[in-house]
Amino acid sequence: MSETEPRAVSVGVLKGGFGKTTTAINTARELAHRNGSALVIDLDDNGHMTRQLGFEDEFTSGVNHTQRVLVDSEEPIQYITNVVDGLDLFPAHTELESVENELRNATMGSARLRKHLVDPLLGDEYDYIVVDCPANRGKLNDNAMYATRNIIIPLKPESGYDSGLSNTIQRLVEEAREYFELNILAVTPTALNSRIDQDTRDRGLLEQLNSLDIADEIIPSYARITHEEWDAIDVGEYEGGLPGIRFRGAIDAAHDAALPVRDYDESCDQLENYAELAQIVEQGGIDR
């Protein structure tokens, strides 16, 4: 297990609508809360995080700041904006697809995020940087993986969660590992909302994750279920908390209010799970 030190992490899964942005913004917010500051970078071409947090003007600006930094090597700090106390954002831009295209032909096109944004800021301006990745393969995703060397994979109990996980590991993580070290810090189920003592998608997702050979290494404690606990669940004798990051109205309402959950409702019981994800980032992995 790594010592606590400045660290960057990508939040990514090769499937849209799986809680990537929600996981990224709230993990980054907990890192800022615990450590004083953090930066979140929106590399998703749909700009969900940027727009959700109320920065529509930055997203549609006539100045393509992502191009200015990643392609033209400008200083990034001038394009960073504050979200809430301690948490800053490098916003996405509506023309991210053009940046993707330019990076394909750029010298060291997969190393630009690391050279021009992460390395200059990590450890000096921010101890922790979180990157919200696009949901598709490409140069922007390559940049995120190369710059951070760490990934958190969120999964929702919706149709395709199994292929979302396998595609992300095979087409993103394993392919990247042919060229550099890339650590899976955590795979987290999110937006769970159903019973797990019946045959639901929530149960199916939890069963799949907990049956992985490396479950102890990548499944956070809030989602870890032992064989004995499954037996207790099936006979109605389970007394533990509901596993996974659960759906809460406060999380949706925080989206509408353009805020992380902590700044909308500090009493939300899911903050402890985002705090555990933040601790996993701080440690560089799960420490059982």
From TrEMBL:
CDD domains: ParAB_family
Pfam family, one: AAA_31
InterPro entries cross-referenced by the UniProt entry: AAA_dom (IPR025669), DNA_Partitioning_ATPase (IPR050678), P-loop_NTPase (IPR027417)
Domain AAA: 8-175
Name the record gives this protein: ParA family protein
Protein source organism: Halorubrum glutamatedens
